[in-house]
Amino acid sequence: MQRGTAAPERAAREATALAITVEGLTTGYRRGEPILRGVSFAVERGSLVGVLGPNGSGKSTLFRALLGLLPPWQGRVLVEGKPARPNPDIAYIPQRETIDWDFPVTVLDVTLMGRYPRLGLFRRPGKADRELALWALEQVGMLEFRDRLIVELSGGQRQRVFLARALAQEPEIFLLDEPVSGVDAPTQHFVFELLERLCRQGKTALVATHDLSCVAQRFDRVLLLNHEVIAYGPPQEVFTETLLNRTFQSHLLLLRYGDRVIVVESEDGDERSC
Ligand SMILES: Nc1ncnc2c1ncn2[C@@H]1O[C@H](COP(=O)(O)OP(=O)(O)OP(=O)(O)O)[C@@H](O)[C@H]1O
């Protein structure tokens, strides 16, 4: 009897603690050619999760499935306990290369776009939406640029504006696709400081990257993905030479000095220290 009442309570508690549950997800674009195979992992609310894998390994495809834009062929994807569907509680920050930067819009216009999923089809943004957009620009240090055209900004500044657009949406979950590729170290640091702050406030963030750089150490958990899950856990557990070689399928040499890590990629002799 006691067992019978405890189980539903436990299930309810677990359901509220988990922002994302992916179970046995197989999906893709063309029938018979799955991009993701049997992917399972769960993300606790308030965590900062890195999705690491080489180009073409299915990171953006996973995000499309979380956004409810790509239905599962097998398995299921739950967001806040419900099947994934387009939903204002999830904000997506796309890769910078996928955006038409020549479009003549101002920084404030782009940030206000974050309000549209909350407004519905026929409502225009009002004073409160504008104030929220200005607050979001302040959070990313771009308030003074609000009337500038987006085309006039540097890569790092554009990245901050897209973060502001996501903040203005007031989501519970942030999906960021390669947010720090091609931006300088101070901007990388700024992006992660902001994400860490949001996660401390109970928001959840997933960051896709193929870059095995310093940022990998800042995640609470890391999902190593190469069409299937290679490993999922805290960085200190999954950041091993064997698992990284299996994920990136090139010879990587990982050297540790205390909490410092040096990644040596043998293909191009590239060496980075974190
Ligand atoms: N719309 C689409 N239609 C058909 N195939 C697609 C589509 N989008 C992506 N793919 C294919 O799915 C595979 C995984 O792509 P995806 O963009 O998910 O990888 P990724 O890990 O995000 O890569 P990157 O690090 O280069 O962004 C690739 O082989 C890609 O060609």
Automatic annotation (TrEMBL):
Which keywords are on file for this protein? ATP-binding, Nucleotide-binding, Plasmid, Transport
Q: Which Gene Ontology molecular-function terms are recorded?
A: ATP binding; ATP hydrolysis activity
Q: What region holds the ABC transporter domain?
A: 20-252
A Pfam match:
ABC_tran
Q: Which Gene3D superfamilies match?
A: P-loop containing nucleotide triphosphate hydrolases (3.40.50.300)
- On whether Zinc-finger is a keyword of this UniProt record, the answer is no
Query: Which PROSITE patterns does the protein's record reference?
Result: ABC_TRANSPORTER_1, ABC_TRANSPORTER_2
- What SUPFAM superfamilies is this protein classified in? P-loop containing nucleoside triphosphate hydrolases
Q: Which family does it belong to?
A: Belongs to the ABC transporter superfamily.
The name this protein goes by in its record: Manganese transport system ATP-binding protein MntA
Its lineage reads: Bacteria, Pseudomonadati, Thermomicrobiota, Thermomicrobia, Thermomicrobiales
